[in-house]
Design a protein that fits this description.
The chain has 203 residues and is mostly helical. The chain is built from 8 helices and no strands. The chain is globular.
């Protein structure tokens, strides 16, 4: 997906998976060869075929978001808008598979992170640690959506009649993001901006 749809080269894909460009290049060549030999068509799978492929798709969307997150100022033409594209893809997967807690967990995690994007860099482009961020610049509606998605994922994963606990890595990462957000600003998100934030928005 990253190469065919997003135009990533082997170096960019390798960086997302923490492997050398040459190693990733060899993997891509082998993958293309196997697909060609097996005669696998490039087609949109049926809805019933989606669940077995979910883990690989979520990993790809996550890697796409991570690449976009690395360029918050949008100065890299190859990475520009990748985070927004990943959010769209994550939302699409969640809409297609609304009963899959990991799909909801990934979208929740990305939204928790993306909601703080405007506060992550100062005017000079320097990274601002979470504890030092201006919470008035956080996106409150996005944080509320992230919370709702995580709550729904937890309900699905721990449903009494499900017969199996379906808690996965993306739900855990979303829960960690939620916890760190609350630790940085315990009253956030309340849906009601503080007086300081209200003053901040008028200036």
């Amino acid at each position: 997906m990253r190469q065919a749809l997003l135009g990533f080269d082997a170096a960019a894909i390798g960086s997302a998976f923490l492997v050398a460009p040459a190693t990733m290049g060899q993997r891509l060549v082998r993958a293309r060869s196997r697909i060609r030999q097996a005669g696998i068509p490039f087609a949109v799978p049926a809805l019933a075929d989606l669940p077995p492929r979910l883990a690989a798709v979520l990993d790809a969307v996550y890697a796409c978001y991570a690449e976009g997150w690395c360029d918050p100022l949008g100065t890299d033409a190859q990475r520009r808008n990748l985070a927004d594209e990943a959010l769209w893809l994550g939302g699409l997967v969640a809409s297609l598979l609304p009963d899959e807690p990991e799909a909801l967990g990934l979208l929740s995690m990305m939204l928790h992170t993306h909601a703080r994007r405007a506060a992550r860099r100062d005017d000079a482009g320097r990274y601002v640690p979470l504890a030092a961020q201006d919470t008035c610049r956080w996106d409150a509606p996005m944080l509320r959506q992230a919370e709702q998605l995580l709550h729904q994922a937890s309900k699905l994963a721990l449903a009494p009649g499900a017969g199996v606990v379906r808690v996965g890595r993306f739900q855990l990462e979303a829960a960690i993001s939620r916890r760190t957000t609350r630790a940085a600003s315990p009253a956030w998100p309340t849906g009601r901006p503080s007086s300081r934030c209200a003053t901040h928005s008028r200036t």
